Amino acid sequence: MGDRLSRVESTGDSIAHALREDILAGRLSPGERLVEEAIAKRYGVSRVPVREALTRLQSEGFVSIVRYRGAAVSETLIQDSRELLQIRRGLEILAAQLAAQNRGGDVADKLAAIAENNPSDHDETPFHDLVATASGNRQLVEMLAHVNRRVQWGLGHNPEASLTDHRVLALAIVNGAVVQAGYLMDEHLQRDERYFGEKFDHPAE
């Protein structure tokens, strides 16, 4: 999406989405000021939808707003994300265990294809979304979607390691190995938490 929004997109929702993506991608740093006038000019809108967008982002934890000082990217974003990663791991472990109880549920064929390393037999749905769906718990799916969106900006990506983990996890789920599925998910997500700690607890000089 370009800087200037279309008339249809010129709403608080669309501006919040654009700013959120900038924060998640690291284009806006913790503590960086968000000036309403500059944002309005960038997107070709009035300050009203900008103010609505900033209020929404404040409710989501991305932005802090201080009276007489204005808005800024939250300086507690890193600590908040660290805590959310812990919550995420607990939810993902539960999802994996429930998915194993259901032996993959409605997406068992897709998980089986992953377990068999046969990508032609499954779609491009992210693996963790498949596990959440397989849990059969709609509230858990929604909670995970919210938490994952809040923490994705700080996570690394190791495709080879992830694919290996996903194959073993998928096999445990379709085989109904509840305890093993939970254990494997725990081990898998600890990698993300270690990466986050290495990136933000010991920043490069």
Structure description:
The protein has 205 residues and is mainly α. It folds into two domains: 11-74, Winged helix-like DNA-binding domain superfamily/Winged helix DNA-binding domain (Arc Repressor Mutant, subunit A, Orthogonal Bundle); 78-201, GntR ligand-binding domain-like (Four Helix Bundle (Hemerythrin (Met), subunit A), Up-down Bundle), CATH 1.20.120.530. The chain has nine helices and three strands; from the N terminus they run H-E-H-H-E-E-H-H-H-H-H-H. The protein has a three-stranded antiparallel β-sheet. Strand 2 and strand 3 (70-73) form a beta hairpin. Helix 4 (77-101) packs antiparallel against helix 7 and helix 4 packs antiparallel against helix 9 (178-200). The protein starts with 11 loop residues before the first helix and ends in a 5-residue tail after the last helix. The model is unreliable at 6-10 (pLDDT under 50).
Key descriptive features of the protein:
Arc Repressor Mutant, subunit A; 205 residues; elongated; 5% strand
Label the overall shape: elongated
Q: Give me the CATH fold name of the largest domain.
A: Four Helix Bundle (Hemerythrin (Met), subunit A)
How many domains? The number is 2
Structural class of the helices, strands and pairings? mainly alpha
According to DSSP, the number of beta strands is 3
CATH class of the largest domain: Mainly Alpha
Percent helix, as a range, is: 55-70%
Strand content: under 5%
What is the end-to-end distance?
34 Å
Largest sheet: 3 strands, antiparallel
Strand order of the largest sheet: 1-3-2
The fourth-level CATH homologous superfamily of the largest domain is: GntR ligand-binding domain-like
The H/E string reads: HEHHEEHHHHHH
On the 0 to 100 scale, the average pLDDT is 87
Low-confidence stretches: 6-10
CATH architecture level-2 label of the largest domain: Up-down Bundle
Rg (CA only): 20 Å
Number of helices: 9
